[in-house]
Protein 1
Amino acid sequence: MPWKYGSVTLKEGSSWTDDNGIRHPTNWGIWTDTYKKDVIGLTWVDPPKTFNDEYYFGWNADESALLPKPLADIKTNKISLARQIVKNDLSESDWYVTRKYERDVAIPSEVSAYRTAVLTNYTSLQSAINSASDIDELKALYTSTNGASQDAKSIDATSSSVVSTSDDTITINGHGFVNDEAVYYSVGLNSDDNPAAVIGGLVDGYIYFVHSATTNTFKLSESHSNCGDASAVNISALSSDGTKQTFTSLGKYGKGQTSPNKNATKYDGS
């Protein structure tokens, strides 16, 4: 913290010498505030208030208000950053496009699907950035919000009345989840205290997005709707021993926080 001796800001963990030539030890920070002030003659200086320099130049003179940057400039920077992310996300599969152009070799459907999702997600974000009417709306695009349900929802994944392989739904009465809410899936432990078997089609420790939610049921998607391909995961089997599996809300992501997961099964060809 910023203690000063005269005009010199002291660094905790470092020794220093006062005007009388006395060298003070590296552990001077353990002294009481009273000793520092009254005996040693140190002065406490409040640190400057922090601010997000993406949106603001800083504080005004009395630190009562932030000085915003021009909204148009912020939008330009945000879109430029989003384009760079798109470029990075597409770079690994650009060679498929080059091969198609030079040798007319078809691009695998899962690669095309991923590239389309990346571009769709970018287009959605770009539109939202351009539509923002003020800095608060722009910041909201990069902020997660709490989902409708904050508690982990536990299910008996061995029950066909809970997990449906016919329509890919999970039934939890009054679950509270809403579409596009991110949920973390955990298999939990079986009766032998070992990791339980997964629900067929799902992956333990994976983040899914709520899809086709009703009051008591929901489906799961590997993609946020911003990506344009938020189809439901095909649930192929019940868990054989997972009577305490959970879905835990991670909230709703802002549009600036979503992107297609290149490891999703829909994109890796499995």
Note: The longest strand covers residues 245-252.
Protein 2
Amino acid sequence: MTAITVPTRVRFSNLVKAESRKYVNTRAALVLSIFTAAVLALATIGAIAAYPDLIKAATGTDLLFLPLAVTSILTAVIVILPVTSEWAQRGALTTFVVEPRRERVVAAKALVSLGVALAVWMACQLSWVVFNAAGAAAHGLEASWEFHWARWFEFIGAFLLDVTVAFTLALLLRNTALTVAIFMAGPIMLETLGLFGEIPAKVASWLKTPGVSLQKIFSAQAGGQTPDATLWGQFTVGAVVWIVVPLAIGLWLNHHVEANESPIPAPTCVTGFL
């Protein structure tokens, strides 16, 4: 009588460890991580040198915009690469043989991506502390430590939403060049659409990424206004368009597409630029 082999249940913690290693083993992600750290270090040094001019433009928590500005897009690409490259390099085939329950693999990827984003966020916080203290000391000024929780939540909320959008697009498209192109060009195209008249502008305002809509909500609160239903509606629609729909379709494809199938090919015009 032939014995039936039952797949060994893989612990979720082991899946998380395996997905974490991919950020080190994926050469592009590792190189980009090192590059991001170098860019953040240079931005910190630059902020120290230009501290007197910097505090004229922003103070306290608002100074966080500097490290976030130089790392947000790079962080999104770091999150995209391990997700898309696994399909391009047929690594998904091995992964799904070890763990056939694909939703657990996706959950592990999402958790690791969140960890990467939070690590970058903490590095940005550290950069803010360093250039604030060192810049003030170097120029004989008083450091600007004014902390506003509303601005802090606005920054981290928009940052994490952007990373989430990058992850869901990567899960949906499974192609690095196409995912990066849509993530970077999509918001720009929506801004451009708003230049073609009142109706296109209204349509674009409802299709913007949830991170942009969240910043509008916080800006309204900072101005002493109560965010109306339109702002919350735009935030909700943006979250559905950029996160919920790509995630739902991406999960469906993840369950129904064979691991050895080719990912969605990027147009030649896209691969030529990336």
Note: The CA atoms of residues 217 and 227 lie 6 Å apart.
Protein 3
Amino acid sequence: MKLVVGLGNPGDRYQATRHNAGFWLVERFAAESHTVLRKDAKFEALVGRHEASGAWLMLPQSHMNLSGKPVQMLASFFKIAPADILVAHDELDFPPGVARIKLGGGIAGHNGLKDISARLGSHDYWRLRIGIGHPGDPHAVTDFVLHKPSQEDRAAIDSAIARVLEVLPLVLAGDHQGAMLKLHTEAEPARAERPVKPEPARPAKAVATEKTKKAGKAEKPEKPAKAVKAGKTGKAGKTGKGGKDDKAGKGGLISSFLKKLFPGQGATPKK
């Protein structure tokens, strides 16, 4: 990696706004690596050379929607290809606390990326996406990104930036896959859950009425069972062993009755 660009708007007015998340990352990396960023009128940016990797660090001093010109001028001057450029920017599609690295892709309506892609004539540069969350309403995005995040969200964003800084040396060394594996699989810090508002108390009468209704539905009287005819019960006996015993009993009574009527006919003659 030969050029790392942080996107944002210059001036104190925008310094703490969500849209400057890219600035926050590069400024922090420069401070921790003791890299001095100086204003360079030729490139319309704050520029410094990272000593360990030899990569250039840049904060364009044009407004966000004109970020492409400084990037293109420095890249052209030092003959840096798009694939050797990493652009850090705020990302609406990720919540605060999440950061991701990717190569190329769409611009998702980001004006800074839009201008850079147009100036470089390519989308194939690396992106470092820093989650800032989404307001929920597309019409509220502009106002959202130009305002400060809450203390909780800022702490989550700073935590994500800290994790990025741990893998940035891998990116600068060209080990993009190693950096992504570590950053994307690393557990994100749990954010404190916001207290849930208790439901307003309901009148006792309304609760009792609802319970009565539910009880009435649950306790429907069962239909009386139909009386089973004796004849049908007998049929059921045919399926079991008991049915055969009944037949045997009836046969024995008939045989006994016939013997009494016709004595001697049932005896077997001796040979």
Note: The CA atoms of residues 30 and 36 lie 7 Å apart.
Protein 4
Amino acid sequence: MQPVDQTRKILQYTSSGGWETSDARIIDEAPVELNVNGEPWLTFMCTPSYLEALGVGFLYNEGIIIQANEISAVRACDNGCQLDVWLNHTVTKPLHWRRTSGCTGGATATQEFNPPHAIMEKDFLPPDLILAGMDDLLRQQELYRSTRGVHCSMLTDGEGTSLLAEDIGRHNTLDKLAGRLLLENPRLKRRLVFTTGRISSEMLQKSARMGASAVISRTSPTALSARLADELGITVVGYARRTQFNVYTHAWRFQSEAISLDVNAEPACEFC
């Protein structure tokens, strides 16, 4: 497996007004070509970890595959520069890829989002579950602690079962989680997504594809992602900190009828 970080000699200007040399660990950024049924599709710019999950999850989030049993084989080459996914059926490569707001210039072929189902799970969320989940996410982000250069996302049920992914691109973290979800098939009593990245519309859509009833971030959602969450029945939480957080959509999951948000969701036009 290709290393996910490297050590580099740096020159540091210190608070005392002097210069010092030291060794710093910096995150690796690698181009990885995705081939589907032997045909080149696109190149990821990513952290070279969980590459098989990245490819499978990307195809799932793009609606190319729905179940793990559609995959005949998936293999990353030894140097991590190529990822081959073989399916047991033919697929047509999208003609056009749309650039996303991802940190590494991600791409999607999806023009209209059709989620597998609306998320209207009648499962109430104790505030402590959100605070503990974000604390758990931050505690497990090992690459961030050593390099300070990656995003981290977690899919969990809040009861001890979780999947984690780190990457230079926040969209890549959710593709890796989707791939791990299909390949590992963990038993999750509920599905909650925690992330260090901004909740854009693409992040919300990928979370919806995984069946998440709530998406929780250290930062903020966009207006479009909040409107999509209104329609899909997903609770969006932002600025989750040690003792507080903001709820943007579907606040009924926290205290039943005791809390409500008067949200008049208007039809959204992404380009208006």
Note: Residues 263-272 have pLDDT under 50 and may be disordered.
